[in-house]
Write a structure and sequence with these properties.
By secondary structure, the chain is an alpha/beta fold. Helices cover 38% and strands 16% of the residues. It has ten helices and eight strands. Strand 3, helix 3 and strand 4 form a beta-alpha-beta unit. The N and C termini lie close together (11 Å). The protein binds 1,3-dihydroxyacetonephosphate (13P).
Length: 252
């Protein structure tokens, strides 16, 4: 990984996994990282109903807490939804927005994602904005065009390096065991950095761009060493503390 540039972030997205039985994993992670000096921030994003429980497990550690989704409104008649202030109150410092599973399963458009990121910023939360192409789009040579469009549509006007993280997650790499080649990862990340330059000006240099999609202990070092890769958004391999640690270790 690059010696300069932003401090890396390794975030675990538990998705819809993990009830109370899962609390043993962050407990283990806290113990395993206790005396480890890291060059990266570490975060876990559990399901909303156990955020407070996980927060108390993380107490006294440097591991941060994130939400997986948020509503864009401050409050109101939005049954089943959660506001950014509520997530903040539960102990979150960041929220994942625009994950491809939200875009696909819940019809979230770039505009919705942008409004959600704005809500995060209003509440003082970091928005982790996800973008990424489908397999069809990659095969059609549209990866750079699609990611450019998603970025332009999803990034709010007030985005800074401090309040925004971009996660590049090729849809076809999520949960499949497939990953782009290192050259492909480097190409897309360089493209994202350059597009951010146009959208955010000088803030782009220090904005973290994470790679996500089938990151595991065996491929993390190679993926994380690519230029403009400033950490990982990890799904399946974040569910077991030992696996997640195997990825975090890249930054020891
Ligand atoms: P996997 O690591 O399970 O492929 O999931 C990636 C992801 O979607 C993280 O948000």
């Amino acid at each position: 990984m690059a010696a300069d540039g932003p401090r890396a972030l390794v975030a675990g997205n538990w998705k819809m996994n993990g009830g109370l039985a899962m609390l043993k994993e962050p407990r283990l992670l806290v113990a395993m990282l206790k005396d480890v000096k890291l060059r990266a921030d570490v975060m876990v994003c559990p399901p909303a109903v156990i955020l407070r429980r996980v927060k108390s497990v993380l107490k006294g550690s440097k591991i941060k807490l994130g939400g997986q989704d948020v509503h864009w409104a401050v409050s109101g008649a939005h049954t089943g939804d959660i506001s950014a202030d509520m997530l903040k109150e539960a102990g979150c410092s960041a929220v994942i927005v625009g994950h491809s599973e939200r875009r696909t399963n819940h019809g979230e458009t770039d505009e919705i994602v942008r409004k959600k990121a704005e809500a995060c910023h209003r509440a003082g939360l970091i928005a982790i904005i996800c973008i990424g192409e489908t397999l069809e789009e990659r095969k059609a040579g549209r990866t750079l065009g699609v990611t450019k469009q998603q970025l332009a549509g999803s990034l709010p006007a007030g985005a800074t390096a401090a309040n925004t993280v971009i996660a590049y997650e090729p849809v076809w790499a999520i949960g499949t065991g497939l990953t782009p080649s290192t050259a492909e990862v480097a190409e897309v990340h360089a493209h994202i950095r350059s597009e951010l330059g146009g959208l955010m000006g000088s803030e782009a240099v220090q904005t973290r761009i994470l790679y996500g999609g089938s990151v595991k202990p065996s491929n993390a070092a190679e993926l994380m060493s690519q230029p403009n890769v400033n950490g990982a958004l990890v799904g399946g391999a974040s569910l077991k503390a030992a696996d997640f640690l195997g990825i975090i270790k890249v930054y020891t």
